[in-house]
Design goal:
With about 350 residues, the protein is mostly helical. It has a single domain, classed as A middle domain of Talin 1 (Up-down Bundle). The chain has 16 helices and no strands. The radius of gyration is 19 Å and the shape is globular. About 50% of the residues are buried.
């Protein structure tokens, strides 16, 4: 149906699907905060795993759909481009949190562990690229390693939260993760209803992701654009909008660990797009079929993550103009990468 539509209709579908994803993301933030309080898992864990995975669903659908269509570059760049965009969103959130540097106020060892995990996961695609194109049932072994490392990292994160070997220094600006009092309307909702609403929003986001994948593929063909450009700067950014919305909403709610954890956890989850896409890609190894432009975004995402981790560890209290130095660097790295992709890609 989308393939037969006129170009203006395709653009409209792309925009509407993006709007649906944003709306679902806003509604998910409040639900995730309540789930964190009721389960006792904490904002960093729920933000990184539950909210991160849920808001990434539409991006997963885009990568898998593109891979099934044989579009390796679109599938790959959509995954990694989303990681870079979402890290830049965290820097934007730092702009609206005026009390202190966001990375200082949201000090949480779990987020640091998640960031280290993300760097490890970003290295694995390069390991695939620099080794022979070995596959089993058209699946590269690195795809299985990504899943194994991700699951192992979740156990380490949970252990670290329950029995941390060190804790961040408490300051006047530090925001601790404490359960919020529920309003009367939310308190009346049972846990099954709360989970049901969350799952329903995930389904809507998955459908919207499929629409974006199809319309993005059509835009690539009809406008003669680079698949890497469309994946990294169009489908990846649009499907990452829930992370922007949920992060800004969480910061305004004062759920700072949820905001930071949602971004870092969502980024680690996004690396699983590669495993899913490689499984769906039937022409061999996705990593060897992708273009160098796609791996450029892995380098970008890794550099931005290193800066973010440095900010979480150094914990600058207040940067210039109310934004941390690491946030300025993150935005600078991302802006430079966008310029390189557009003008030199």
């Amino acid at each position: 149906m989308i393939a037969e539509a006129a170009l203006p209709v395709i653009l409209l579908l792309f925009a509407v699907a993006g709007g649906v994803i944003c709306l679902c993301g806003v509604m998910m933030t409040g639900l995730a905060d309540k789930i964190a309080d009721r389960t006792g898992l904490g904002e960093a864990i729920v933000g990184g795993v539950v909210l991160g995975a849920a808001t990434s669903l539409s991006g997963t659908v885009v990568s898998v759909t593109a891979a099934l269509d044989g579009r390796a570059s679109l599938a790959f760049s959509n995954s990694i481009g989303g990681i870079a965009a979402q890290t830049a969103f965290l820097a934007l959130a730092d702009l609206i949190y005026r009390r202190a540097n966001l990375e200082h106020a949201a000090a949480e060892v779990t987020n640091i562990i998640q960031g280290v995990l993300l760097l490890g996961l970003l290295i694995l695609p390069f390991a695939a690229l620099t080794t022979p194109e070995w596959t089993l049932f058209a699946i590269h072994p690195v795809s299985l390693m990504i899943v194994a490392v991700y699951i192992g990292g979740l156990f380490v994160s949970r252990t670290t939260r329950e029995a941390p070997m060190w804790k961040p220094v408490r300051t006047r600006e530090t925001r601790t993760d404490t359960p919020d009092e529920e309003d009367e309307k939310t308190a009346q909702k049972s846990n099954p209803r709360l989970y049901g609403e969350f799952i329903g929003l995930m389904v809507l986001m998955g459908i919207a992701g499929w629409v974006i994948a199809r319309s993005g593929s059509e835009l690539t063909d009809r406008l003669g654009l680079s698949a890497s450009l469309v994946g990294a700067l169009m489908t990846a950014v649009v499907t990452s909008l829930p992370e922007l919305v949920t992060t800004l909403a969480a910061v305004r709610r004062g759920a700072l660990q949820l905001a930071v954890g949602g971004i870092i956890g969502g980024n680690t989850f996004d690396t699983l797009f590669l495993s899913a896409a490689d499984t769906a890609y039937r022409d061999g190894s996705l990593y060897h079929a992708a273009e160098m432009q796609d791996f450029f975004w892995i380098t970008t995402a890794a550099l931005m993550t290193v800066v973010l981790l440095a900010g979480l560890i150094v914990r600058e209290r207040q940067g210039p103009a109310g934004i941390g130095v690491e946030s300025l660097l993150i935005l600078g790295i991302y802006g430079t990468a966008v310029g390189v992709q557009i003008f030199a890609g």
